[in-house]
């Protein structure tokens, strides 16, 4: 039987997408190498910059070629699409078309100007933060917001600006849904946080007396990564200043992590977090490698994987009970009377803090809610950039229970806005919300999650995620759609709220 | 003053060459990463293969574009070339034109068929070598030689086949020159080798009793690399199964090395050898990065750098005297009565051996002379592939003083022919010959070389090479031209012969 025109066109499309993906893989490897291995001389950075520019120019050329656009349109126009293509293939075509049109709609000159601006913006932020001088950064940020509005205009003039910006990171999640989720969270968390802040915190001074040898931490982290299911034949674990995960394809997923000799938990929590991201990438369907539909669904879903492993596995009492014998063996100066439960308590201390990235499970979401409120207010024109420090400090006081003594540790923290990433912050908390939903569903389907963890039955947990999240890749249209399919309910913060209430009531002996 | 047409054309040419070089840099990084870091799964290799294929396809496209060829021709036709362009720029144009025409003359189908053949050939060789079955490999090798002849026909039908093949690695060194150099060497070395073989070898059993801790070796090698002049801000030193050096550009030059717990010297000699290659790459002119004229002149000149540092620095008595305190500190079970001179003697033992890569300074060149003789005889049709084992064994006996018990350790050793590299072997010995000429010139210009080494004055040595070899890059037309310019004489084996005679007479207490 001869192949249909539709099938032939689809085969050509898939091959073109694969070629673009292969070239992009090259770009990603060059970027990874730059972050992890590049020699320190300025000349090395400059030469690598030229290589990245040359290659990304070619990728852009291929991604926006007239012939590529014509191919997409011809395929879209086929009357027998629904019969000839599978659901996955139709989703792939749809995503390819969205990517293509977005790239096409953005004028090259605009992309260049915006890139130049964010590079200047980053430099201005570094300087302003160092000098604790928000007013110096304010006009730069105002210009970033103008660029964001223009961007949204080019990409989709019919949708609200913030929806278009968020969609860059989180597919099809409108502002109205964000407002529902974040309001419910805020309402529940703020009183909890004030109760916890007023309670007595466990004593963790004993941890400072121990020599947390960095080499031993590395050994422990590799051991943990291996045991919870990271496949080292399809990935690497290296050290770098800023931990991150790169999935070049499902067979080559690389984590970097860092170890601190004074903060024992940082390396472990960070590694497990990145392993969570990495196991998502390793769990995506091999046969869709190189196709848009084979990618991770969204940043929120990505973060739901890393935060599930970090918060629901690594921050559990069961986890520390399981690994305690190994930890004692590696760090022999842990006092004899110390137990796994002491470690568990120490690692879950929830003190109000100024810095988002150092936050615990309870306070963290409020840092994000605040960023989301500010992004919304700024784009709606309800707040001016100059007002940010004042509003930041007021709301931090209300939401987290602490106000920064200076903007440096207030609104000037975090590289996202300076890098032009507006609409990105919400994905962290969407991930935390979804992670609680995965945990809830696992408890219903696999039984006592903590027992599985304490017994080291990580395979069952990973298998659940593989089947229910990873294998679906980008076929569902949104995080909401994925969750409805898997756990029967859209994104809903009630499971996260219940989890935090239960966990911290017990830890702090207070009623939440 | 307006820019001349010639100047404008040259600027465009340089930018085009830079873009091709930047993309090629991407290819090299992907290749390096594959050899050093890639996860072990087959899927990772396959995905990387796709990325390499996509990118090398693009590089080939750019390198053979009609518009690029037209630009070269237009520039070549300018009447004011000699006034408008510098010597370096004219050399750059010439090299770019040679590269372009070679790429253009080779039909794509031929390149693909040849690549497919060498890949099969490599696999057939692995199998044949394992089974010690030369006849199984013979027809594959015969086909390789046919491909080589065709290749030479495409590239330059007017020159002898072997000249064209050698030119791929060693610019402008005709067969007649190779014959002069190698005959003189053979005549001098063969009697020396037989005298040394018959002499008493120093006792090295004491070395086997020492625990040569691999971590300590790594520390030592990094220390040595740093001290002799490798710039770690413009390079890296990693471990890999097969040591090699990659110069992505003059700011990013990476060495890999390996350490053996039983063969102490292997890691050090190997590291110093690769550092020699790397310091050449780091010493090439920064401002010619990305231009053909900025590349290393030839593989022979490359090897003259690595072998200068390996044979004339690292294998010298002065070197071991200089580093002995450090070595004793790192390896405390070296017996108290052991001296630097004992290490020197142990490392310079010259026993006849079957394997080229394990050979010492005296026997090594004869492995190469034999390969050169066989390549010449095969391409002239004076010898058939089937006769190789017989001739190999006879000549090994005559030249090196030992015949292999099986082809596995005879003509089947070495990956070069199986990978289609014919005309490559001579570069090793050309490098050794030139290295002796550098050493001779340094003695004349800098004074006692051994005293500099013993005092750790490596900077002066590196500076000499920077000024006299590295900075000239590919401006001279050939190794002969470079040597004439620098030491006033073409490649001549007499300095190597004199060096070996003097060194080994003293070491073995024989008259050579």
Automatic annotation (TrEMBL), chains A, B:
| One GO term of the biological process aspect | proteolysis
SUPFAM superfamilies in alphabetical order: Metalloproteases ('zincins'), catalytic domain
| Gene Ontology molecular function, alphabetical | metallocarboxypeptidase activity
Query: Which PROSITE patterns does the entry mention?
Result: PEPTIDASE_M32
Quote the protein name from its UniProt record: Carboxypeptidase Taq
List, from the UniProt record, the residues annotated as the active site of this protein.
274 (proton donor/acceptor)
Q: Which domain of life is it from?
A: Eukaryota
């Amino acid at each position: 039987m001869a192949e249909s025109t539709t099938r032939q066109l689809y085969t050509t499309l898939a091959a073109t997408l694969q070629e673009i993906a292969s070239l992009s893989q090259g770009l990603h490897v060059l970027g990874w190498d730059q972050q992890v291995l590049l020699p320190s001389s300025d000349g090395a950075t400059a030469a690598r910059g030229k290589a990245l520019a040359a290659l990304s120019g070619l990728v852009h050329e291929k991604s926006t070629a007239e012939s590529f656009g014509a191919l997409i349109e011809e395929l879209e126009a086929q009357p027998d699409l629904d019969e000839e293509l599978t659901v996955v293939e139709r989703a792939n075509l749809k995503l390819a078309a969205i990517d293509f049109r977005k790239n096409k709609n953005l004028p090259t000159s605009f992309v260049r100007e915006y890139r130049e601006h964010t590079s200047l913006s980053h430099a201005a932020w570094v300087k302003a933060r160092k000098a604790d001088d928000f007013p110096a950064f304010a006009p730069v940020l105002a210009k970033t917001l103008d660029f964001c509005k223009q961007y949204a205009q080019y990409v989709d003039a019919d949708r609200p600006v913030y929806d278009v910006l968020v969609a860059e990171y989180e597919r099809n999640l409108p502002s109205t849904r964000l407002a529902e989720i974040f309001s419910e969270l805020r309402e529940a968390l703020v009183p909890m946080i004030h109760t916890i802040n007023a309670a007595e915190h466990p004593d963790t001074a004993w941890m400072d007396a121990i020599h947390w040898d960095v080499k031993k931490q590395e050994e422990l982290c590799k051991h943990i990564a291996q045991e919870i299911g990271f496949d080292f034949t399809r990935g690497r674990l290296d050290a770098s200043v800023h931990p991150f995960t790169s999935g070049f394809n499902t067979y080559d997923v690389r984590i970097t992590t860092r170890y601190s000799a004074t903060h024992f938990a940082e390396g472990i929590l960070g590694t497990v977090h990145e392993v969570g991201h990495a196991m998502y990438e390793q769990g995506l369907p091999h046969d869709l490698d190189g196709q848009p539909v084979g990618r991770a669904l969204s940043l929120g879903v990505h973060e739901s994987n890393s935060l599930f492993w970090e918060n629901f596995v690594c921050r559990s009492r069961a986890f520390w009970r399981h690994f305690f014998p190994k930890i004692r063996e590696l760090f022999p100066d842990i006092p004899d009377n110390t137990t796994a439960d002491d470690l568990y308590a120490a690692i879950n201390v929830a003190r109000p803090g100024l810095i988002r990235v150092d936050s615990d499970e309870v306070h963290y979401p409020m840092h994000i809610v605040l960023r989301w409120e500010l992004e919304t207010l700024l784009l709606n024109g309800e707040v001016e950039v100059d007002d940010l420090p004042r509003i930041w400090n007021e709301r931090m006081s209300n939401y987290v229970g602490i106000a920064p003594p200076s903007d440096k540790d207030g609104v000037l923290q975090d590289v996202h806005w300076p890098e032009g990433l507006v609409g990105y912050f919400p994905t962290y908390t969407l991930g935390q919300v979804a992670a609680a939903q995965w945990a809830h569903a696992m408890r219903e389907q696999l039984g006592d999650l903590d027992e599985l963890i304490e017994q080291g039955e990580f395979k069952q947990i990973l298998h659940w995620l593989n089947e229910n999240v990873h294998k679906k890749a980008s076929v569902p249209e949104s995080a909401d759609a994925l969750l409805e399919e898997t756990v029967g309910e859209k994104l809903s913060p009630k499971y996260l709220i219940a989890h935090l209430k239960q966990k911290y009531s017990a830890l702090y002996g207070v009623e939440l």
